[in-house]
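C-alpha coordinates incoming
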Protein backbone atom coordinates (compact mmCIF):
# COMPACT_ATOMS: atom_id res chain seq x y z
CA UNK A 1 0.00 0.00 0.00
CA UNK A 2 1.45 3.40 -0.93
CA UNK A 3 2.23 5.88 1.81
CA UNK A 4 -0.62 8.24 2.63
CA UNK A 5 -0.22 11.79 1.39
CA UNK A 6 1.92 13.41 4.07
CA UNK A 7 0.87 16.24 6.29
CA UNK A 8 3.08 19.34 6.10
CA UNK A 9 3.97 21.36 9.18
CA UNK A 10 6.00 24.33 7.99
CA UNK A 11 7.46 26.30 10.89
CA UNK A 12 9.13 29.53 9.85
CA UNK A 13 10.57 32.10 12.19
CA UNK A 14 11.61 35.60 11.22
CA UNK A 15 15.30 36.56 11.01
CA UNK A 16 16.61 33.46 12.79
CA UNK A 17 20.12 32.93 11.45
CA UNK A 18 21.48 29.38 11.26
CA UNK A 19 24.51 30.39 13.32
CA UNK A 20 22.13 30.78 16.28
CA UNK A 21 21.02 27.13 16.11
CA UNK A 22 23.01 24.43 17.86
CA UNK A 23 22.32 21.89 15.09
CA UNK A 24 24.33 24.26 12.86
CA UNK A 25 27.15 24.43 15.39
CA UNK A 26 26.19 27.72 17.05
CA UNK A 27 28.90 29.16 19.31
CA UNK A 28 26.40 31.31 21.15
CA UNK A 29 23.29 29.29 22.13
CA UNK A 30 21.52 25.95 22.32
CA UNK A 31 18.29 25.06 20.51
CA UNK A 32 17.48 21.53 21.74
CA UNK A 33 14.00 21.37 20.27
CA UNK A 34 14.82 22.68 16.83
CA UNK A 35 17.71 20.20 16.91
CA UNK A 36 15.19 17.36 17.31
CA UNK A 37 14.08 18.02 13.72
CA UNK A 38 17.67 17.92 12.45
CA UNK A 39 18.44 14.76 14.42
CA UNK A 40 15.36 13.05 13.06
CA UNK A 41 15.87 14.24 9.48
CA UNK A 42 18.11 16.30 7.24
CA UNK A 43 19.98 19.58 7.68
CA UNK A 44 20.67 21.73 4.63
CA UNK A 45 23.92 23.67 4.81
CA UNK A 46 23.51 25.58 1.56
CA UNK A 47 19.93 26.77 1.53
CA UNK A 48 19.80 30.37 0.26
CA UNK A 49 17.17 33.04 -0.16
CA UNK A 50 16.88 34.93 -3.43
CA UNK A 51 16.30 38.30 -1.70
CA UNK A 52 17.22 38.64 1.96
CA UNK A 53 14.23 40.47 3.34
CA UNK A 54 10.92 39.44 4.94
CA UNK A 55 8.03 39.97 2.49
CA UNK A 56 9.97 39.13 -0.68
CA UNK A 57 11.27 35.83 0.74
CA UNK A 58 7.77 34.91 1.92
CA UNK A 59 6.29 35.68 -1.49
CA UNK A 60 8.92 33.49 -3.15
CA UNK A 61 8.22 30.62 -0.75
CA UNK A 62 4.46 30.75 -1.41
CA UNK A 63 4.55 31.31 -5.16
CA UNK A 64 7.67 29.42 -6.22
CA UNK A 65 8.77 32.45 -8.25
CA UNK A 66 11.43 35.16 -8.07
CA UNK A 67 10.43 38.63 -6.92
CA UNK A 68 10.51 40.26 -10.34
CA UNK A 69 7.82 37.71 -11.28
CA UNK A 70 5.64 37.69 -8.13
CA UNK A 71 5.91 41.48 -7.82
CA UNK A 72 7.05 41.55 -4.18
CA UNK A 73 10.44 43.14 -4.79
CA UNK A 74 10.47 45.23 -1.58
CA UNK A 75 8.74 45.54 1.79
CA UNK A 76 6.27 48.03 0.30
CA UNK A 77 5.10 45.94 -2.62
CA UNK A 78 2.34 43.70 -1.19
CA UNK A 79 1.49 40.35 -2.69
CA UNK A 80 -1.30 40.01 -5.20
CA UNK A 81 -3.17 37.03 -3.78
CA UNK A 82 -4.66 36.09 -7.15
CA UNK A 83 -1.36 34.41 -7.94
CA UNK A 84 -1.00 30.66 -7.81
CA UNK A 85 0.61 29.47 -4.58
CA UNK A 86 1.39 26.04 -3.20
CA UNK A 87 -1.25 26.27 -0.40
CA UNK A 88 -3.91 27.00 -3.04
CA UNK A 89 -2.91 23.97 -5.04
CA UNK A 90 -2.83 21.76 -1.93
CA UNK A 91 -6.24 23.06 -0.87
CA UNK A 92 -7.59 22.29 -4.32
CA UNK A 93 -6.45 18.69 -3.96
CA UNK A 94 -8.10 18.08 -0.62
CA UNK A 95 -5.55 19.32 1.87
CA UNK A 96 -6.75 21.30 4.88
CA UNK A 97 -4.68 24.47 4.92
CA UNK A 98 -3.96 27.22 7.44
CA UNK A 99 -1.50 30.05 8.04
CA UNK A 100 -1.06 31.25 11.60
CA UNK A 101 1.24 34.11 12.65
CA UNK A 102 3.30 36.50 10.59
CA UNK A 103 2.14 37.25 7.04
CA UNK A 104 3.75 40.57 6.09
CA UNK A 105 2.48 40.52 2.52
CA UNK A 106 -0.20 43.20 2.88
CA UNK A 107 -3.79 43.28 4.13
CA UNK A 108 -7.25 43.72 2.73
CA UNK A 109 -8.69 43.02 -0.70
CA UNK A 110 -6.22 41.25 -2.90
CA UNK A 111 -3.51 41.18 -0.24
CA UNK A 112 -5.18 38.99 2.41
CA UNK A 113 -4.04 35.36 2.58
CA UNK A 114 -5.76 33.09 0.03
CA UNK A 115 -5.61 29.34 -0.39
CA UNK A 116 -6.19 28.78 3.31
CA UNK A 117 -9.23 27.23 5.01
CA UNK A 118 -8.24 29.24 8.04
CA UNK A 119 -5.92 32.18 8.54
CA UNK A 120 -5.11 34.34 11.52
CA UNK A 121 -2.20 36.67 10.96
CA UNK A 122 -0.38 39.57 12.57
CA UNK A 123 -0.84 42.96 10.92
CA UNK A 124 2.52 44.12 9.49
CA UNK A 125 5.39 43.16 11.75
CA UNK A 126 3.06 42.34 14.64
CA UNK A 127 3.66 42.86 18.35
CA UNK A 128 5.51 40.66 20.82
CA UNK A 129 3.16 41.33 23.74
CA UNK A 130 -0.66 41.24 23.59
CA UNK A 131 -0.62 41.11 19.79
CA UNK A 132 -3.43 42.02 17.43
CA UNK A 133 -4.46 39.29 14.98
CA UNK A 134 -6.59 39.43 11.87
CA UNK A 135 -8.76 36.31 12.16
CA UNK A 136 -10.04 35.77 8.64
CA UNK A 137 -10.14 39.57 8.41
CA UNK A 138 -11.62 40.30 11.86
CA UNK A 139 -9.37 42.23 14.23
CA UNK A 140 -8.85 40.76 17.68
CA UNK A 141 -6.34 41.39 20.47
CA UNK A 142 -4.96 38.35 22.28
CA UNK A 143 -3.33 38.61 25.70
CA UNK A 144 0.03 36.97 26.11
CA UNK A 145 3.33 36.48 24.29
CA UNK A 146 3.20 36.18 20.54
CA UNK A 147 5.32 33.02 20.12
CA UNK A 148 3.21 31.11 22.67
CA UNK A 149 -0.05 32.37 21.17
CA UNK A 150 0.86 31.38 17.62
CA UNK A 151 1.69 27.87 18.85
CA UNK A 152 -1.54 27.66 20.90
CA UNK A 153 -3.53 28.64 17.83
CA UNK A 154 -1.74 26.08 15.69
CA UNK A 155 -2.63 23.32 18.15
CA UNK A 156 -6.24 24.50 18.38
CA UNK A 157 -6.53 24.37 14.61
CA UNK A 158 -4.97 20.90 14.51
CA UNK A 159 -7.40 19.74 17.22
CA UNK A 160 -10.37 20.87 15.16
CA UNK A 161 -9.28 19.58 11.77
CA UNK A 162 -10.76 16.61 9.94
CA UNK A 163 -8.37 13.74 10.79
CA UNK A 164 -9.30 11.91 7.60
CA UNK A 165 -7.74 14.52 5.35
CA UNK A 166 -4.07 15.61 5.15
CA UNK A 167 -3.15 19.05 6.42
CA UNK A 168 -0.70 21.78 5.54
CA UNK A 169 -0.12 24.18 8.41
CA UNK A 170 2.11 27.25 8.09
CA UNK A 171 3.23 28.30 11.58
CA UNK A 172 4.92 31.65 11.07
CA UNK A 173 6.60 33.18 14.11
CA UNK A 174 7.26 36.87 14.49
CA UNK A 175 10.30 36.17 16.66
CA UNK A 176 13.20 36.79 16.70
CA UNK A 177 12.58 39.90 14.58
CA UNK A 178 13.53 43.37 15.84
CA UNK A 179 12.87 44.86 18.44
CA UNK A 180 13.78 41.56 20.15
CA UNK A 181 11.41 41.61 23.13
CA UNK A 182 11.77 38.43 25.22
CA UNK A 183 9.00 36.88 27.28
CA UNK A 184 9.11 36.86 31.08
CA UNK A 185 10.22 33.24 31.25
CA UNK A 186 13.45 33.96 29.35
CA UNK A 187 14.03 37.55 30.49
CA UNK A 188 17.03 36.64 32.65
CA UNK A 189 18.55 33.97 30.42
CA UNK A 190 22.30 34.64 29.82
CA UNK A 191 22.18 37.40 32.46
CA UNK A 192 25.46 36.46 34.11
CA UNK A 193 27.48 35.34 31.11
CA UNK A 194 29.12 37.02 28.14
CA UNK A 195 28.03 35.77 24.72
CA UNK A 196 31.08 35.15 22.46
CA UNK A 197 31.68 37.83 19.84
CA UNK A 198 31.77 36.88 16.16
CA UNK A 199 35.20 36.89 14.48
CA UNK A 200 34.25 39.76 12.14
CA UNK A 201 32.72 42.08 14.74
CA UNK A 202 35.58 44.57 14.36
CA UNK A 203 35.40 44.67 10.57
CA UNK A 204 36.51 48.11 9.30
CA UNK A 205 35.03 47.58 5.79
CA UNK A 206 38.34 48.11 4.04
CA UNK A 207 39.06 45.93 0.98
CA UNK A 208 35.36 46.04 0.09
CA UNK A 209 33.04 48.02 -2.15
CA UNK A 210 31.76 51.20 -0.47
CA UNK A 211 28.32 49.57 0.02
CA UNK A 212 29.51 47.84 3.19
CA UNK A 213 30.92 51.05 4.66
CA UNK A 214 27.77 53.03 3.81
CA UNK A 215 25.27 50.58 5.35
CA UNK A 216 23.56 51.81 8.51
CA UNK A 217 23.16 48.68 10.58
CA UNK A 218 26.17 48.95 12.84
CA UNK A 219 25.87 47.74 16.40
CA UNK A 220 28.13 50.53 17.65
CA UNK A 221 26.17 53.33 15.98
CA UNK A 222 22.74 52.55 14.56
CA UNK A 223 20.56 50.99 17.26
CA UNK A 224 17.49 52.92 18.40
CA UNK A 225 16.76 53.30 22.13
CA UNK A 226 13.88 50.81 21.78
CA UNK A 227 16.35 48.23 20.44
CA UNK A 228 18.68 48.58 23.41
CA UNK A 229 15.88 49.14 25.96
CA UNK A 230 18.38 50.36 28.55
CA UNK A 231 20.48 53.53 28.64
CA UNK A 232 24.09 52.97 27.61
CA UNK A 233 26.30 53.18 30.73
CA UNK A 234 28.32 56.36 30.96
CA UNK A 235 32.09 56.56 30.75
CA UNK A 236 32.66 53.64 28.36
CA UNK A 237 35.46 53.72 25.79
CA UNK A 238 34.31 53.26 22.16
CA UNK A 239 35.42 49.64 22.34
CA UNK A 240 33.57 49.00 25.62
CA UNK A 241 30.51 50.79 24.23
CA UNK A 242 30.39 48.47 21.20
CA UNK A 243 30.88 45.40 23.36
CA UNK A 244 28.09 46.48 25.71
CA UNK A 245 25.69 47.07 22.82
CA UNK A 246 26.53 43.70 21.29
CA UNK A 247 25.75 41.92 24.54
CA UNK A 248 22.53 43.92 25.01
CA UNK A 249 21.39 43.08 21.49
CA UNK A 250 22.44 39.47 21.20
CA UNK A 251 21.05 38.42 24.57
CA UNK A 252 17.57 39.71 23.74
CA UNK A 253 17.77 38.12 20.31
CA UNK A 254 18.75 34.76 21.80
CA UNK A 255 16.03 35.02 24.47
CA UNK A 256 13.45 35.39 21.70
CA UNK A 257 15.02 32.39 19.97
CA UNK A 258 14.77 30.36 23.20
CA UNK A 259 11.03 30.92 23.26
CA UNK A 260 10.74 29.86 19.61
CA UNK A 261 12.71 26.74 20.47
CA UNK A 262 10.41 25.89 23.40
CA UNK A 263 7.38 26.30 21.18
CA UNK A 264 8.84 24.15 18.41
CA UNK A 265 9.18 21.51 21.12
CA UNK A 266 5.50 21.89 22.03
CA UNK A 267 4.46 21.26 18.42
CA UNK A 268 6.77 18.26 18.08
CA UNK A 269 5.36 16.83 21.33
CA UNK A 270 1.87 17.37 19.97
CA UNK A 271 2.68 15.35 16.83
CA UNK A 272 4.13 12.57 19.00
CA UNK A 273 1.15 12.48 21.34
CA UNK A 274 -1.37 12.38 18.49
CA UNK A 275 0.55 9.74 16.55
CA UNK A 276 1.18 12.12 13.66
CA UNK A 277 4.98 12.21 13.59
CA UNK A 278 5.43 9.42 11.01
CA UNK A 279 3.08 10.94 8.48
CA UNK A 280 4.04 14.59 8.85
CA UNK A 281 6.81 16.45 7.05
CA UNK A 282 8.14 18.94 9.59
CA UNK A 283 10.24 21.87 8.43
CA UNK A 284 11.97 24.53 10.45
CA UNK A 285 13.34 27.50 8.56
CA UNK A 286 13.53 31.28 8.66
CA UNK A 287 12.72 33.80 5.93
CA UNK A 288 16.41 34.75 5.70
CA UNK A 289 19.56 34.86 7.76
CA UNK A 290 20.78 37.73 9.93
CA UNK A 291 23.95 39.47 11.04
CA UNK A 292 24.57 38.60 14.69
CA UNK A 293 27.28 41.20 15.17
CA UNK A 294 29.04 39.74 12.12
CA UNK A 295 30.79 42.57 10.23
CA UNK A 296 29.79 44.76 13.19
CA UNK A 297 26.14 44.59 12.05
CA UNK A 298 22.60 43.58 12.87
CA UNK A 299 19.92 43.18 10.12
CA UNK A 300 20.22 41.41 6.73
CA UNK A 301 19.66 42.52 3.04
CA UNK A 302 23.23 41.93 1.82
CA UNK A 303 24.17 38.96 -0.30
CA UNK A 304 26.85 38.16 2.28
CA UNK A 305 26.74 34.67 3.76
CA UNK A 306 25.18 35.43 7.15
CA UNK A 307 22.07 36.99 5.64
CA UNK A 308 21.93 34.95 2.41
CA UNK A 309 21.89 31.57 4.16
CA UNK A 310 18.58 30.25 5.48
CA UNK A 311 18.44 27.57 8.13
CA UNK A 312 16.52 24.62 6.73
CA UNK A 313 15.93 21.36 8.51
CA UNK A 314 13.34 18.81 7.55
CA UNK A 315 12.04 15.59 9.08
CA UNK A 316 9.89 12.93 7.43
CA UNK A 317 10.61 9.49 8.87
CA UNK A 318 8.97 7.66 5.97
CA UNK A 319 11.49 9.00 3.47
CA UNK A 320 14.35 10.95 5.04
CA UNK A 321 17.14 9.22 6.91
CA UNK A 322 17.66 10.59 10.41
CA UNK A 323 20.71 12.73 11.17
CA UNK A 324 21.68 13.42 7.56
CA UNK A 325 23.28 16.57 6.13
CA UNK A 326 23.02 17.94 2.61
CA UNK A 327 25.48 20.51 1.28
CA UNK A 328 23.95 20.75 -2.19
CA UNK A 329 22.49 24.11 -3.13
CA UNK A 330 18.81 24.66 -2.54
CA UNK A 331 16.78 27.91 -2.64
CA UNK A 332 13.57 29.30 -1.17
CA UNK A 333 12.10 29.25 -4.68
CA UNK A 334 12.42 25.44 -4.54
CA UNK A 335 10.20 24.98 -1.46
CA UNK A 336 6.82 25.20 -3.23
CA UNK A 337 7.52 22.60 -5.95
CA UNK A 338 8.92 20.25 -3.30
CA UNK A 339 5.77 20.39 -1.18
CA UNK A 340 3.65 19.80 -4.27
CA UNK A 341 5.86 16.84 -5.20
CA UNK A 342 5.17 15.20 -1.84
CA UNK A 343 1.45 15.78 -2.28
CA UNK A 344 1.54 14.20 -5.73
CA UNK A 345 0.69 17.46 -7.51
CA UNK A 346 2.53 18.56 -10.62
CA UNK A 347 4.05 22.02 -10.23
CA UNK A 348 2.56 24.60 -12.61
CA UNK A 349 4.77 25.77 -15.43
CA UNK A 350 5.09 29.26 -13.96
CA UNK A 351 6.86 27.90 -10.86
CA UNK A 352 10.55 28.64 -11.27
CA UNK A 353 12.08 26.37 -8.66
CA UNK A 354 12.59 22.61 -8.70
CA UNK A 355 11.57 19.93 -6.24
CA UNK A 356 14.54 18.97 -4.08
CA UNK A 357 12.88 15.73 -2.99
CA UNK A 358 15.68 13.68 -4.63
CA UNK A 359 18.24 15.43 -2.40
CA UNK A 360 16.29 14.26 0.62
CA UNK A 361 16.94 10.63 -0.25
CA UNK A 362 20.62 11.22 -0.94
CA UNK A 363 20.38 11.52 -4.73
CA UNK A 364 21.92 14.30 -6.79
CA UNK A 365 19.84 14.69 -9.96
CA UNK A 366 21.74 15.39 -13.13
CA UNK A 367 21.74 19.09 -13.89
CA UNK A 368 20.89 20.12 -10.31
CA UNK A 369 21.84 23.75 -9.63
CA UNK A 370 25.36 24.58 -8.46
CA UNK A 371 24.91 28.34 -8.86
CA UNK A 372 22.22 30.74 -7.68
CA UNK A 373 20.89 34.20 -8.52
CA UNK A 374 20.21 36.86 -5.90
CA UNK A 375 18.71 40.34 -6.09
CA UNK A 376 18.06 42.97 -3.42
CA UNK A 377 15.92 45.78 -4.81
CA UNK A 378 15.17 48.15 -1.92
CA UNK A 379 17.92 50.69 -2.63
CA UNK A 380 18.94 52.82 0.41
CA UNK A 381 15.68 52.25 2.29
CA UNK A 382 15.83 51.65 6.06
CA UNK A 383 19.51 50.70 6.38
CA UNK A 384 21.12 52.47 3.45
CA UNK A 385 21.98 49.22 1.68
CA UNK A 386 22.67 49.62 -2.03
CA UNK A 387 20.54 47.67 -4.47
CA UNK A 388 22.52 44.74 -5.83
CA UNK A 389 22.40 41.45 -7.64
CA UNK A 390 24.86 38.63 -7.92
CA UNK A 391 25.72 35.03 -8.41
CA UNK A 392 26.99 32.52 -5.89
CA UNK A 393 28.66 29.27 -6.84
CA UNK A 394 30.01 26.64 -4.48
CA UNK A 395 33.32 28.52 -4.32
CA UNK A 396 32.80 32.13 -5.39
CA UNK A 397 30.42 35.02 -5.07
CA UNK A 398 30.18 37.91 -7.50
CA UNK A 399 28.08 40.93 -6.48
CA UNK A 400 27.14 43.93 -8.60
CA UNK A 401 25.96 46.95 -6.62
CA UNK A 402 24.02 48.71 -9.35
CA UNK A 403 22.88 51.04 -6.57
CA UNK A 404 19.74 52.41 -8.19
CA UNK A 405 16.13 52.50 -6.93
CA UNK A 406 14.69 52.00 -10.42
CA UNK A 407 11.35 53.37 -9.20
CA UNK A 408 10.69 50.28 -7.08
CA UNK A 409 8.14 50.86 -4.28
CA UNK A 410 9.95 51.83 -1.07
CA UNK A 411 13.34 52.09 -2.79
CA UNK A 412 15.07 55.49 -2.83
CA UNK A 413 15.70 57.00 -6.27
CA UNK A 414 19.16 58.30 -5.51
CA UNK A 415 21.67 56.30 -7.58
CA UNK A 416 25.27 55.73 -6.47
CA UNK A 417 28.26 54.74 -8.60
CA UNK A 418 28.03 51.02 -9.39
CA UNK A 419 30.67 48.67 -7.94
CA UNK A 420 31.62 44.99 -8.14
CA UNK A 421 32.73 42.60 -5.43
CA UNK A 422 34.19 39.14 -5.79
CA UNK A 423 34.85 36.78 -2.90
CA UNK A 424 36.71 33.52 -2.90
CA UNK A 425 34.67 31.66 -0.30
CA UNK A 426 37.28 28.93 0.14
CA UNK A 427 40.13 31.35 0.83
CA UNK A 428 37.99 33.96 2.57
CA UNK A 429 34.84 32.43 4.10
CA UNK A 430 34.08 35.61 6.08
CA UNK A 431 34.12 37.76 2.92
CA UNK A 432 36.62 40.31 4.18
CA UNK A 433 38.56 40.80 0.97
CA UNK A 434 37.15 41.83 -2.39
CA UNK A 435 39.36 40.26 -5.08
CA UNK A 436 37.44 41.63 -8.07
CA UNK A 437 40.44 43.67 -9.27
CA UNK A 438 43.00 40.98 -8.54
CA UNK A 439 44.44 39.89 -11.94
CA UNK A 440 44.67 36.32 -10.66
CA UNK A 441 40.87 36.20 -10.67
CA UNK A 442 40.32 37.73 -14.12
CA UNK A 443 39.14 34.44 -15.62
CA UNK A 444 36.90 33.75 -12.62
CA UNK A 445 35.28 37.16 -13.04
CA UNK A 446 34.68 36.53 -16.72
CA UNK A 447 33.13 33.13 -16.05
CA UNK A 448 30.93 34.42 -13.23
CA UNK A 449 29.64 37.32 -15.29
CA UNK A 450 28.62 34.91 -18.00
CA UNK A 451 26.89 32.73 -15.40
CA UNK A 452 25.18 35.76 -13.84
CA UNK A 453 23.75 36.77 -17.19
CA UNK A 454 22.76 33.19 -17.98
CA UNK A 455 20.84 32.99 -14.70
CA UNK A 456 19.19 36.36 -15.30
CA UNK A 457 18.01 35.16 -18.68
CA UNK A 458 16.84 31.86 -17.25
CA UNK A 459 14.68 33.49 -14.55
CA UNK A 460 13.54 36.33 -16.82
CA UNK A 461 15.29 39.20 -15.05
CA UNK A 462 17.37 41.94 -16.66
CA UNK A 463 20.78 43.43 -16.02
CA UNK A 464 20.98 47.03 -14.88
CA UNK A 465 21.63 49.38 -17.86
CA UNK A 466 24.94 50.51 -16.32
CA UNK A 467 26.30 47.02 -16.89
CA UNK A 468 25.33 46.71 -20.55
CA UNK A 469 28.46 48.21 -22.19
CA UNK A 470 30.64 45.51 -20.65
CA UNK A 471 28.35 42.59 -21.41
CA UNK A 472 29.55 39.94 -23.79
CA1 LIG B 1 12.66 38.41 8.11
Amino acid sequence: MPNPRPNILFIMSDDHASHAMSCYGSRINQTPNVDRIAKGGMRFDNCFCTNSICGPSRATILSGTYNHVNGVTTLTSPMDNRQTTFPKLLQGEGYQTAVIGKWHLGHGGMHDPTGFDYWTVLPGQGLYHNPIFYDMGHETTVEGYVTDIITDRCMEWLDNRDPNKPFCLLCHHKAPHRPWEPDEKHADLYEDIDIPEPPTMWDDYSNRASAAREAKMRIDRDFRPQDLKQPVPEGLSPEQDKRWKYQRYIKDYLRCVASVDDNVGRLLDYLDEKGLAEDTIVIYTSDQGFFLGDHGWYDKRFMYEESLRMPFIIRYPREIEAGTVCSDMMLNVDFAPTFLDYAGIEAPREFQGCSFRPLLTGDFPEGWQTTMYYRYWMHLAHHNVYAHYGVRTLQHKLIYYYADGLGQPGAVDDPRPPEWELFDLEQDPHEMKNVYDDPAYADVVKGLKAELHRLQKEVGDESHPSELPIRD
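note: The chain has two domains: 7-183+248-363, 372-470.
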